Amino acid sequence: MHVDDPAFWRAGAISTVLVMSVVLIMLTIDTLGAISAGSARVPAYAVINRHIDYKFDAKRGNDVPVITASEPFFGKAWEAAAAEALIEQGKLVIQSRACMDCHTFFGNGAYYAPDLTKAWLDPAWETWQAITGKPTREEAMAAFLMNPEMYRTWTRTMPNLGLTEPEAVATVAYLKWMAAVDSNGFPPNFGRMQKK
Amino acid sequence: MYRSQVLALKYFSAAMALFGVMVLAGLLAACYYIHPDLLFGILHFNIAKILHIDTMIIWLLMGFMGALYWFLPEEFGRELAGIAAAEALFYVFCAAVAVVAIVFIFVQYGGANEATLWFINQGRKYVEAPRWAAIGVVVIMAVFAYNIIGTAYASRKITGITAVLMVDLVPLLALYLIAFPAISNMSTDLFWWWWLVHLWVEATWEVLIGCIMALTLMRLLGTPRRIVEMWLYIEVALVLGTGILGLGHHYFWIGTPAYWLAIGGFFSALEPLPLLGMVVHAVYDAGTHRMKTTNKPAFYWMMAEAFGNFLGGGVWGFMITLPQVNLYAHGTQWTVSHGHFAFWGAYASGVVSVIYLVVQKVRGAAELDGALWKWSFAALNIGLIGMVGALLVSGFAQAFVERAIGGSTHEAFIAGQENPWFVQGMIMRVIFGLIFAAGYAALMWDLLTIGKRAPVPAAVAVAAE
C-alpha cells in the first residue's frame, strides 16, 4: 500500500470510474426497455381509451395505477397511431409553453404550481366540470387550459398561454397517459383525503 | 500576461454581470410567491424562473472557463492553442446569451411545433435555451476543449491535473448533446435529461471545480503539486464512484424500475463522503499554513466552498435523498433549499475565490485585504443561509401538509402553499434575498476596487506585463 503515492489513487480513480460506468450502462439498457411506451410500467399511448384509477397495492406497499374498462376520450376511441400523434403533440405543448417552469411532472420542474403526475385523477376536476358546464372531465380540462384566467379558484392564476383547441386536447391526453405510468407510488396518497 | 489570461478577465466580467441578473431574476421569482398577481399578463413566474436558473448555469460555466483560461497557460507554460477562435467566440457567447434572454422576456412561448424549440424555448428545465443557442454552447465548449487538449498536445506537457481535466471535458461535452431531443415519452425524456443535469452538476462539474481548486490551492497556499494531485484523484474516485450510480436518486419516481430505489438511495447516501474529504483537505492545508495568506478574501471564499459544498451538497442532499423521505420531499421547497445551498457552496464560492486570486495578480497587490470584502462575504453568506433556512421551513411545511397529510392533489397543494409556516418562509426568503443582493453589490464594488486602494508594492512590474 502506497497511500501517499498519487499513482495509487490514480489507479483507484480510473478503475472506480470504469466499473461504475459499465454498471450504469448495463442498468440504462435494462431501464430503457422497462420504460418504453407499451411496457408494463409505461403503458402504450392508446391507454387514453381506458379508465384509469390509482389504488393502494398492499403487496408493493404503495399506490399503483389501475387500468380497467374502455371509456371514450372526447367522445370516441382513438386508434393507436392517432393516440401516439396526440401524445407527441401534447409533449410539444408542454415544452413550448414551458409548463415545467411552473409545474412539476413526476416531481421534476418548478414548484410554483401543482404537480401534474396524477392531475388527470384529481378530484378537483369535478368542481371545474361544474364551473365550465362541460359534461366530461376531459372537456372541462380542455376548456380550463384554453382560458385558465376565466376559471380562477385561487390567488395564483394560471396565465392564458394561447392554447388552441387541438393543443388543449393533446395536453389533456398527455396528462391522462401520464396518470397511467407506474411511478413507484409517487405522489403518495393521491386523492385519498378527498375521498374520505 | 497571456492572451488567454486577458480572455479569462473578460469571462470573469461577463460571469459577474450574469451573477447580478441571476440575483435580480431570483428576487423577482421569490416575489411571485407573496404577490401572485405581480406582472400578470406581462411576465410570469416561469420566465423569471428560467432567467434565474439559466443565468446561474451560464455564469458558473463562464467562471469555470475564466479560471481555466487563466491557469492553463501557466500550467502548460505557453499560450493556449486556438486562442483566436476562443476570443471571437467569447463575444458570440455574450451576444447569444443576450438574444436568448430578450426572446425569453419578450416572446416567451410559441406554438406546439419544432420551430418553437429551435427559436424560442425548449421548455426543459435548465436547458430551456432554444436549439440554435444550444448548438452555440456545443461549439463554444468544443473550442474550449480544443484549447486545452490542443495545447497539451503541442506542449507535450501533461500534469495530473490537466490529465483529469481533459478526460472530464469529454463527458462534459458529450452529455450536453442530451439538451436537444424532444422525446414524447416523459419517462424516457426525464431519464436522459437527468444524465445531463446530474452527471454535469454532481459529476463532471464537481471534477472540474476540483481541478480549479487544486490549481488555486497551489497558488494560494503553496500546497505541493503531489499533494493536490493525490487529493484530486481521491476526489475523482469518490465523486464518480458514488455520483455515477447516485444518479439513481433521480430515478425513484419517473416510471423507472423499483431497483433504482435501492441503488439510488445507497449510492447517493455515500455522496457526502468526497465532500467531507474536501473539508478535511481544506482544513488541513489551512492549518499547516496557520491561516496565513496574502489573499484573505480568496482564502475565505475557498474555505466557504469546501464547507458550503459539504453542507449544501452533502448534508442537505442527504436529508432528502433516501426514497423513504424523498417520496414526500421531492418537488417541494425542501429541494429548492438544497439546490440553493449546493450550487452556492459547490461552485459559486469557488469561482469567487478564483476571481480574488486573479485580481491580486492583475493589480500586483502584495497583499489583498480590507473591510469591504468581509462585509460582502458576510452579507452573501448570511443572505444565502437565511434563504436556505427559510426555504427549508417552507419545504417541511409543504412536505407535511401537501404530501403526507393532503395526498398531493390540487387542493392539498393550495393547503400547503397557504400554510402559515410556508408563507412565513417565503417572506423570510425575500428578506434574506435582499441581504444577499446587498452582498452582491458590495462584492462587485470590492472586486472593482480592492488592491487599488491599498499600497501595491509589486504593482508596477505585474501590471506592465
Order of helices and strands of chain A: HEEHEEHHHH
Distance between the termini of chain B: 5 Å
- Major sheet: arrangement of strands of chain A: 1-2
- The parts of chain B where pLDDT drops under 50 for at least 5 residues are 458-465
**CATH topology type of the domain at 1-182 in chain B:** Cytochrome C Oxidase, Chain A
The share of residues in extended strands of chain B comes to: under 5%
The radius of gyration of chain A is: 21 Å
Number of extended strands of chain A: 4
What is the helical fraction of chain A, as a range of percent?
40-55%
Shape of chain A: elongated
In the CATH hierarchy, what is the superfamily of the domain at 1-182 in chain B?
Answer: Cytochrome c oxidase-like, subunit I domain
Low-confidence stretches of chain A: none
- CATH architecture of the domain at 1-182 in chain B, by name, is Up-down Bundle
Describe this structure in words.
The complex is a heterodimer of chains A (196) and B (465). Chain A is α+β, with helices and mostly antiparallel strands. Chain A folds into two domains: 1-35; 45-179, Cytochrome c-like domain (Cytochrome Bc1 Complex, Chain D, domain 2, Orthogonal Bundle). Chain A is built from six helices and four strands, in the order αββαββαααα. In chain A, the strands form two sheets. A two-stranded antiparallel sheet of chain A has the order 1-2. With 465 residues, chain B is an all-alpha fold. Chain B has a domain at 1-182: Cytochrome C Oxidase, Chain A, CATH 1.20.210.10. In chain B, α1 runs parallel beside α3 (83-106) and α6 (160-176) packs antiparallel against α7. The chains are: A alpha+beta (196), B mainly alpha (465).
